[in-house]
Amino acid sequence: MEIAKVAVVGLGSMGSGIAQLAVEAGFETVGRELTPELGEKAKAQITRFLARKVEKGQLDAGADEAAVARLSLTTDFADLADCDLVIEAAFESLEVKQQLFSELEAVVRPDAILASNTSALSVTEIASLTERPERVVGMHFFNPAPLMPLVEIVRAERTDEQVFETAYAFAERLGKQPIRCNDTPGFVVNRILIPLLNDCVRVLDEAGVSVEDLDKAMKFGAGWPMGPATLADLVGLDIHVHASEALYEKLREPRMAPPPRLARMATAGKLGRKSGEGFYRYD
Ligand SMILES: NC(=O)c1ccc[n+]([C@@H]2O[C@H](COP(=O)([O-])OP(=O)(O)OC[C@H]3O[C@@H](n4cnc5c(N)ncnc54)[C@H](O)[C@@H]3O)[C@@H](O)[C@H]2O)c1
What we know:
Blueprint: E1 5-9, H1 13-24, E2 28-32, H2 36-55, H3 63-69, E3 71-74, E4 85-88, H4 94-107, E5 113-116, H5 123-127, E6 136-141, E7 150-155, H6 161-173, E8 177-182, H7 189-206, H8 211-222, H9 228-235, H10 237-251, H11 260-267
Parallel strand pairs: 1-2, 1-4, 2-3, 4-5, 5-6, 7-8
Antiparallel strand pairs: 6-7
């Protein structure tokens, strides 16, 4: 199936990054937000990021303006009627997403693809209230979407194979490195990374190793590009704890549960880079 026009629902941190990728790749893109102000805020950010790419020589002069011109904004689902692919990047709540998918289904063509960027919810459950669950697929981008190459293309229980392959090919058109996987808790990366980071934090206490030495250990002993404490600070401890709780709820494996030290830090607002303090301080 040919994708010409795209919509992104929810232009928060992930949605605005995904919309930026789509317009940069040449797709007419409609961004849907709850209010015009939220839409304009996202558009201003996309404009700034693309202008910076021109300054850095990563994009030809004028290509930024041409890309931004491909982005239109709306608060009204009716404006998504002629889109071939809708990527939902709204608040992480099953009720919110199920409601959105019902509203989307009412306006788009029967063959339009509906993708969710959920990190921790089941795509099958999101699709379960739709009339055509075979056109629903997961497209799990990583944060920040314009910079992280991976996209997990998630096959829900009833996803049609052609829909799945079209989502895969679209991710490639965005310049990404997609992978194919089933709709299991945490998909691939979070299923592995979350318990692994939790183990690293537990080792901090068990082995009496300093934060700096833990990072040194995994960088120089395991070849990680950055240590686990640095990585957790980059991801954001609140995001990690939330994803960890969601995985634990589904899998009930003790390693999935956030270690008390992490939960305490997140509650105290030590969220990592974004709050200025996590395992390290950022001035
Ligand atoms: N932040 C990450 O690291 C990350 C990574 C991968 C995937 N995700 C997933 O992407 C999705 C969006 O996350 P985010 O970090 O961009 O969040 P965000 O808070 O930055 O943005 C959320 C968006 O949802 C919209 N929204 C809120 N309530 C809504 C409602 N009731 N109906 C419709 N829209 C609503 C907001 O206006 C906003 O555009 C989530 O499903 C999240 O799990 C996040």
